[in-house]
Amino acid sequence: MRRHRRTATSNRQKSLLLKAAERQWELQFANKGTEGRKVDCALYKCILYNLEIKQVFLDSELSLKKFSVMIDTNQTYLSNVVNKYFNCNLKELLNTYRVEYAKELLHAGKCSLEELPQRCGFVSFARSITFVVNSTLLTKICRLWGKPLSNTLRHSLTI
């Protein structure tokens, strides 16, 4: 799904995402005998809504505490749901969304390598280590794409 930054989201968008999340929940967890509570399902849908529609992962200062306040739950519930149903911790989940967003920006040619970390929600770094940051980010992208770093770097520099 391609995400476009919007200032407001429609009720239709939210409704469609929540229905899709409900179907996904049923297919992945409920029908396969995975024990899940109704509150887990609600948190799962809320997490997806905030990541997919509101794009909260673009906030470089987003933390477990800040996100739990944002979705009106406690840190333990949020952490448990992310760990159990996304099979990773919150930091890994946010970075996965950030890398996917970076891939979209690079593919669309909407961003230079220098501004990529900041635009994707990664913590901004001093100018002197920008190349290191970009190389690290590209390495993560390469792992997801399954391509060598040299090919990806050559491709991204031609965008």
Can you offer a commentary on this structure?
The chain has 159 residues and is an all-alpha fold. It contains eight helices and no strands. The chain has helices spanning 11-30, 38-52, 64-70, 75-85, 90-108, 116-119, 130-145, 149-157. The longest helix is centred in the N-terminal third of the chain and has 20 residues, at 11-30. The protein is globular and about 45 Å long. The two termini are 22 Å apart. The model is unreliable at 125-133 (pLDDT under 50).
Q: What sequence of helices (H) and strands (E) makes up the elements?
A: HHHHHHHH
Radius of gyration: 17 Å
Number of DSSP E strands: 0
Largest sheet: none
Query: Per DSSP, what share of the residues sits in E-state strands of 2 or more residues?
Result: under 5%
* Low-confidence runs: 125-133
What is the count of DSSP helices, taking H or I runs of 4+ residues? 8
CA-to-CA gap between the ends?
22 Å
Class per helix and strand makeup: mainly alpha
Shape: globular
